[in-house]
Structure formats: structure tokens, C-alpha cells
Write a structure and sequence with these properties.
By secondary structure, the protein is of the alpha/beta class. The chain is built from nine helices and seven strands. It has a single domain, classed as GTP cyclohydrolase II (Rossmann fold, 3-Layer(aba) Sandwich).
């Protein structure tokens, strides 16, 4: 995993450095936005970090089927105030890709929850992994984080990779009629903490 390019990115959430990470030749590399990393490393303070798996429907189109876009924006708002790093992993639909995710949406409309839909199509309930995120943290020399996540499995994966998770920060989202079953499945099946 290497840094392919970096640039300046002004945004509604402040000025960021944006970088693309890959192994070379990827059409869709992972993306990192960060601000205040140098200060955190110099002071040896844990860095606020959000490891966010791509969700085109939620992040770009503000889908009400999930809370992904809202979590993304809440993390960026946190970083605007406190500094931090967003690692945007290109693993859409819990790692199954956009087309399969949209097929899973159809199964959810027939009554399956998000995990059952993935399994019905022959996928694991959640095929995401966080090795690349840990490599990106290592690239920047980040050893201790305040992790913005509701997912205990993500927190454990980061810990198991040797990153010191000093604190887990919950990202609040809005429950709607369209995402209530989705949020309930995340709480009941994977123990998401809201």
C-alpha cells in the first residue's frame, strides 16, 4: 500500500489534505482526508480517526436506507472542530460491491434484513476488512487513535492489528422509517453501539 498522490482539498468541513492510496494501477484507490495529523503526532495525542467503508447510496445520494452518509458527515464535522483523519475504504456494500448491494436492497424490500440478504446471495454477512486502513495509519505514523465508530468488530480488528484504540466515539444518526430495520439488525446481529 503506497500513497499515490496528495493534494489540498478545501471543503465545508475545513481545509484538508487528500490522498489516494493503492498498490498501483487501481481504478478506485482508497482515499484519506486529514487535518491536524502533524500536531497530534508531535504532541503524541491519540488521533481522531474514522474508517469509513464506501456507501455510494448513502454518502453521495443521501439514501434513507442507511445512516452511512450521516455518519460520514458527522465525522467530518468532528474533524472540523478537533482535527483527525477519514480513511475512506473502497469496499461498497459490506465488501460485496455496488451491483450486489443493490440486489440485496431488493431482497430487503422482500423482508430480509441486510445480513440475511447478503447471505441469501452467497456472500458473507460482512466481507469488509481493515488491513489497508491499518497500513494507511502506519504510513502516517499513527499508533494511537480515538476511533469514531459504532461497530465493535471494526474496533476489535483495528486493535488486533496493533493500533492502540484509546477511545471509541459513537456517531449518532437519525433513525427513520426507511432505516429502522437496518439499524435494528446492526444492533441485534453485530452489537453495534448507538
Amino acid at each position: 500500500m503506497k500513497l499515490l498522490v496528495t493534494s489540498r482539498l478545501p471543503s465545508p468541513w475545513g481545509n484538508y489534505s487528500i490522498g489516494a492510496f493503492g498498490r498501483g494501477g487501481e481504478e478506485f484507490p482508497h482515499v484519506v482526508l486529514h487535518r491536524g495529523v502533524e500536531q497530534a503526532l508531535e504532541s503524541e495525542s491519540p488521533l481522531a480517526v474514522r474508517i469509513h467503508s464506501e456507501c455510494m447510496t448513502g454518502d453521495v445520494f443521501a439514501s434513507h436506507r442507511c445512516d452511512c452518509g450521516e455518519q460520514l458527515h458527522n465525522a467530518l464535522d468532528h474533524f472540523k472542530r478537533h482535527g483527525g483523519m477519514l480513511i475512506y475504504l473502497r469496499q461498497e456494500g459490506r465488501g460485496i460491491g455496488l451491483v450486489e448491494k443493490l440486489k440485496a436492497y431488493n431482497l430487503q424490500d422482500e423482508g430480509l434484513d441486510t445480513y440475511e440478504a447478503n447471505a441469501a446471495m452467497g456472500h458473507g454477512e460482512d466481507e469488509r476488512e481493515y488491513t489497508d486502513a491499518v497500513e494507511i495509519l502506519s504510513h502516517y505514523g499513527v499508533k494511537a487513535v480515538r476511533l469514531l465508530t459504532n461497530n465493535p468488530s471494526k474496533e476489535q480488528a483495528v486493535r488486533n492489528a496493533g493500533v492502540n484504540v484509546v477511545e471509541r466515539l459513537t456517531l449518532r444518526g437519525t433513525e427513520t422509517p426507511d432505516n429502522a430495520a437496518y439499524l435494528r439488525a446492526k444492533r441485534e446481529i453485530t452489537g453495534h453501539l448507538f
